[in-house]
Amino acid sequence: MSELLQRFPGAQRALFRSYHIGGCSSCGFRPDETLAQVCGRNGGLPVEEVTETILASHEAEQKMQISPEDLSRRLQEPNPPVIVDVRAREEWDAVHIEGSEFLTQELMQEMMTAWPKDREIVFLCHHGVRSLDATSYFAGHGFSDVKSLSGGIDAWSVQVDPSLPRYHVE
């Protein structure tokens, strides 16, 4: 499973969404298990079907991402997207993209109740994993134009704005 998750980071979301596997300790899996083992102890799920589900989910998640370069271009155009940063407060305080909004409970409530569902929103985090979770969550709640910044602020600081410091979370 470890190798699978490295190659297809959204596999855990796909497994949970489709089969309720991997969302908590009672339905979790170990990194050293194989997909066949996980399928076997979850009702004998067909490995081929589960693999197809993971691949389809991966393709869908690729479409939900925007590259740093494309986001940089979009920010220069009329009606730029709103950037919502889903990192921890400490990460935000250390470095953030100018003009982005820090996701708080209050902002989330406002987004869910008052923002138009077709508003263009780009979520970002450190490496693009948590932001993809947020993108999937908002898409699942009817938002039609949500994206995740691929590679997160780390990729942004390399590809678009090298003046932003990179960091490592321990």
Can you walk me through this structure?
With 170 residues, this protein is α/β, with parallel strands linked by helices. It folds into two domains: 2-62, no CATH class; 65-159, Oxidized Rhodanese, domain 1. 48% of the residues lie in helices and 9% in strands. It has nine helices and five strands, in the order H-H-H-H-E-H-E-H-E-H-E-H-E-H. The chain has a five-stranded parallel β-sheet. Strand 4, helix 8 and strand 5 (146-149) form a beta-alpha-beta unit. The longest helix is centred in the first third of the chain and has 17 residues, at 47-63. It is globular, with a radius of gyration of 17 Å.
Give the helix/strand class.
alpha/beta
Number of domains: 2
Report the major sheet: 5 strands, parallel
Helix content: 40-55%
Which series of helices and strands comes N to C? HHHHEHEHEHEHEH
Please identify the oligomeric state: single chain
Widest beta sheet: strand line-up? 1-5-4-2-3
Show unreliable segments: none
Radius of gyration based on Cα positions:
17 Å
CATH architecture heading of the largest domain: 3-Layer(aba) Sandwich
CATH fold label of the largest domain: Oxidized Rhodanese, domain 1
Question: Which overall shape is indicated by the principal axes computed on the Cα atoms?
Answer: globular
Number of β-strand runs? 5
CATH superfamily of the largest domain: Rhodanese-like domain
How many helices? The count is 9
Mean pLDDT across residues: 93
| Binned strand content | 5-15%
Q: Between the first and last Cα atoms, what is the distance in angstroms?
A: 23 Å
CATH level 1 name of the largest domain: Alpha Beta
